[in-house]
Specification:
The complex is a heterodimer of chains A (425) and B (349).
Chain A (H helix, E strand, L loop, with lengths): L1 E8 L2 E4 L4 E3 L2 E4 L1 H9 L4 E9 L5 E10 L2 E2 L19 E7 L1 E6 L8 E4 L14 E9 L5 H25 L6 E4 L2 H5 L6 E10 L22 E3 L1 H8 L11 H5 L2 H9 L5 E10 L3 H18 L4 E5 L5 H15 L3 E8 L20 E6 L3 E4 L4 E3 L3 E2 L11 E2 L4 E4 L15 E5 L1
Parallel strand pairs in A: 1-8, 2-4, 6-20, 9-11, 13-15, 13-16, 16-17, 17-18
Antiparallel strand pairs in A: 1-12, 3-4, 5-11, 6-9, 6-10, 7-8, 14-15, 19-23, 21-22
Helix pairs in contact in A: 7-8
Chain B lengths: L3 E8 L16 E4 L4 H9 L3 E9 L1 H6 L1 H13 L5 E8 L2 H18 L3 E5 L4 H6 L4 E4 L7 H16 L18 E5 L4 H13 L29 E6 L3 E3 L15 E4 L11 E3 L7 H5 L7 H10 L4 E2 L2 E4 L7 H17 L4 E5 L2
Parallel strand pairs in B: 1-3, 1-4, 4-5, 5-6, 8-12, 8-13, 8-14
Antiparallel strand pairs in B: 2-3, 9-11, 10-13
Helix pairs in contact in B: 1-6, 3-4
Classes of the chains: A alpha/beta (425), B alpha/beta (349).
């Protein structure tokens, strides 16, 4: 596969007569985009708002984030609005620096927030993107699953719409990502490293039409090999239970990006194995064994790096997969969050293999940040209750906010993009 | 300039009160340095003064640790120390216990830094490392000179205002605690770095250390199962309908009880699952899926078990610290034993 990204840089967004990108400004025809999204009868009261970097503005109730992309020959977020099509190959236009944020009007304990300035900006990539926010309500009679499906489609529609504008803008420097079958199998003195990518956790079962991998809900996904370009080119969407990485994160996958950067220099990128945290113990064992076998016997990996998605059960799934890989003689390293517990080094994870000696922390779960009040809010008037908060525990969205990093969009990146960690002392 | 004031603590032996026969000696304090304290004074050098030496027999301390620590804190306070150095205790269990306890008490009550030294096998290390800086020493007093050198070096750093953020780098046992940090590489970069080092057989440092695992040997059932009183326990968040005990649905520090006397099976008007870590919808359709009361009643009728205990103990096991898990486990275990239970079935989620 040879993927060519053609990025059109965006530094700010504004509303205007027609949608286009010029000199780093993304101009959006608000009515046109609104009309496009209003065509979905599951959604009511659709509106678009914009938040630019350094504005005195907070975006709340974030359901998912998308990078605007466009593939002129089709294959735009395959399996969601259109049938599955080949992605990871050919040209893809990118409005780089812009993000589509879909907001969720329903109550949900896992909604994300971002401030466009202030102390949290260094922890969130979305404080530095020009954000196009889609607000809506569920139409009467639409249930949660129906609304969430419609929100995903709205995000994808807007991302394609803005991505198309990028395709007409001049691209400064295109970027080619290629990992051919020959480099996948070639003999090299560099160690072959495979990435085991947990797409979702079934501890909260996905909905029947929840689009995650080529539109599939990965409810019973068995480990499968993906080309890294497929992930970067829109084949993977974040689950409805967005807990550890947005669709934007998958499109700019930090681990895949890092493996690509070091491919041919420090290592030989052997490929990606997609998996899930299965709901049952038997399922987790099955996934662990199959993922390890794929890495060892099909990709010929010397070593694997693993990330997890979701909550606590994926900790067991990750450890079991790690053990299965090490049992085959492959070395392993894990990126995983850390529980605070009583502050001691005990209980950092709900489950840890005795052999898990190479573990990178992507941050302390309980850690919070204090955000100052803001002049403007895009989202509901109140925030909460979030997970671990009591029923009725809400606060005004524009006020000072004591927020766990888990709910700061992009700051609890379980796919490896963050700088937050823990230190044992 | 006035010297940096240090009080030194020693047991009866190192404080020259006597051997085991003097182990009952009561808390006392004497001006100036005594015994190994004189060597310590030399190591510390100019600008430091051991203004007094507090003493106590190991048995006296062990018999009434809190009262003894209190008394010693009072005696030491009168000398207005800026730092207290206890021991070193090497591998002596009672002495290590006393040194750790006294250091912790001094820090808590007087706000005075207090340090000690022990061998890694001294039980006092695990007991006090979280709160007290403990210098690594050899096992016996044969390594006294080296131990005093380490203590003096640490004392000089503390006197200079060093907060000793990383005890291991200062020759001490790590506190065994963790704190949030921001690193200069992403998690992905660090993971690949770590993996490449591991592959090359080069040293690497994990960010999350493997905990020590407790091994619990299964107990042999003393009675026949058909005569045993069997209890049900769960961490799946079972609560009486409406959660009257207000049990949290995660990060739990308590348990709740559900009376099941005379109950054939759980029904949704009586109990519910209150847990933030899994999808409770299927359990909440039929709570016997979480705690198999219905099946246990059948076994009871068939005579497979003697009797089903009339109280179910439940907590919500989500993000629970090991400290709380141990505390809850001990309390539930003690109550079950008092209530005459011989066997327990634990159902988890």
């Amino acid at each position: 596969m040879r993927l060519e990204f053609r990025p059109a840089p965006v530094y700010r967004a504004t509303f205007g007569a027609s949608t286009r990108i010029h000199d780093g400004t993304l101009t959006i025809a608000r009515d046109e985009l609104r009309a496009l999204l209003n065509g979905d009868r599951r959604l009511a009261d659709v509106d678009i708002e914009i938040a630019n970097p350094d504005e005195d503005c907070r975006i709340t109730d974030i359901f998912d984030v998308f990078e605007p992309r466009f593939k002129a020959n089709g294959g735009n977020f395959p399996g969601v609005l259109e049938r599955a099509a080949r992605v990871g190959d050919g040209q893809t236009a990118v409005a780089r620096g812009a993000a589509v944020m879909v907001l969720n009007a329903m109550s949900d304990r896992y909604k994300l927030t971002v401030d466009m300035r202030g102390p949290s900006a260094r922890f969130s990539p979305y404080a530095h993107t020009a954000n196009v926010c889609i607000r809506s309500n569920p139409a009467p009679g639409i249930d949660r699953a129906g609304y969430y499906r419609a929100l995903k489609e709205a995000g994808v529609r807007a991302a394609i719409y803005l991505g198309e504008a990028a395709s007409h803008a001049p691209s400064e420097d295109s970027e080619v990502l290629t990992l051919s079958p020959s480099s996948l199998s070639e003999r090299s003195t560099l160690p072959r490293i495979a990435y085991i990518y947990m797409l979702a956790s079934q501890q909260m079962p996905t909905e029947p039409d929840e689009p995650i991998l080529y539109g599939d809900n990965v409810r019973n996904l068995l480990p499968t090999i993906l080309h890294p370009n497929e992930v970067l080119d829109g084949a993977v969407l974040a689950p409805y239970w967005n807990f550890g990485g947005d669709t934007y994160t998958a499109q700019n996958h930090p681990m895949i990006r890092e493996l690509y950067t070091r491919h041919g220099r420090d290592l030989n990128f052997a490929g990606v194995i997609a998996t899930i945290a299965a709901e049952t113990e038997a399922g987790r064992s099955r996934s662990a064994i199959m993922a390890a076998n794929l890495a060892h016997d099909t990709l010929g990996a010397d070593a694997v790096v693993l990330t997890k998605y979701g909550g606590g059960i994926p900790e067991s799934a990750t450890m079991e997969t790690y053990d299965a890989c090490e049992a085959l003689g492959m070395k392993g390293a894990i990126v995983i969050w850390t529980h605070g517990g009583d502050g001691s080094v005990e209980g950092s994870l709900t489950f840890m293999s005795p052999g898990a000696n190479a573990v990178v922390s992507c941050g302390l779960n309980e850690e919070s940040i204090d955000l100052p009040p803001v002049a403007r809010v895009i989202g509901n008037a109140s925030i909460g209750p979030l997970i671990m908060e009591s029923e009725g525990e809400t606060r005004p969205s524009n006020g000072p906010l004591h927020l766990r990093f888990l709910f700061l969009a992009g700051a609890a990146d379980q796919l490896g993009g963050g700088f937050r960690s823990v230190e044992e002392y | 300039m006035e010297s940096f004031r240090i009080v030194h603590y020693l047991n009866q032996f190192f404080g020259q009160l006597g051997g085991e026969t003097a182990a009952g000696a009561p808390p006392q304090i004497k001006p100036g340095a005594i015994g190994s304290g004189r060597v310590l004074q030399n190591e510390l050098g100019n600008g430091f003064e051991i203004v007094a030496t507090a003493l106590c027999g190991d048995n006296c301390f062990a018999d009434a640790p809190e009262a003894t620590a209190d008394e010693l804190v009072g005696l030491i306070a009168e000398f207005r120390p800026q730092l207290v150095i206890a021991g070193p205790a090497f591998n002596s269990g009672r002495y290590g216990q006393s040194c750790g306890m006294l250091c912790a008490a001094l820090q808590d009550r007087l706000g005075v830094p207090a340090i000690t030294g022990m061998h890694e096998e001294n039980p006092g290390v695990d007991q006090f490392r979280r709160r007290v800086l403990i210098v690594r020493t050899g096992a016996t007093a044969r390594s006294m000179a080296e131990a005093l050198r380490s203590l003096a070096a640490l004392a000089r750093r503390i006197a200079a205002g060093d907060a000793i953020d990383r005890p291991a780098e200062a020759g001490c046992f790590p506190h065994g605690m963790k704190r949030p940090v921001v690193r200069d590489k992403t998690a992905a970069q660090r993971a690949i770095d770590m993996l490449l080092h591991k592959l090359a057989g080069q040293p690497f440092a994990t960010e999350v250390s493997v905990p020590r695992f407790d091994r619990v040997a299964p107990v042999k059932l003393a009675t026949a199962l058909s005569a045993a009183n069997v209890a049900l326990v769960t961490d799946g968040g079972l609560v009486v309908k409406g959660n009257p005990d207000r049990m949290p649905n995660g990060y739990c520090d308590r348990f709740t009880t559900i009376p099941i006397g005379g109950l054939e099976r759980f029904t949704t008007d009586l109990v519910e699952a209150h847990h933030g870590g899994y999808d409770t919808q299927f359990v909440n359709q039929d709570l016997n899926r979480l705690v198999p009361l219905d099946a246990m009643r059948e076994l009871e009728r068939e005579g497979a078990i003697g009797h089903l205990h009339e109280t179910v103990y439940a907590t919500a096991g989500l993000g629970m610290s090991l400290t709380n898990a141990r505390k809850i486990g001990r309390e539930i275990g003690a109550r079950l034993r008092n209530e005459g239970v011989q066997a327990v079935i634990l159902t988890s989620t």
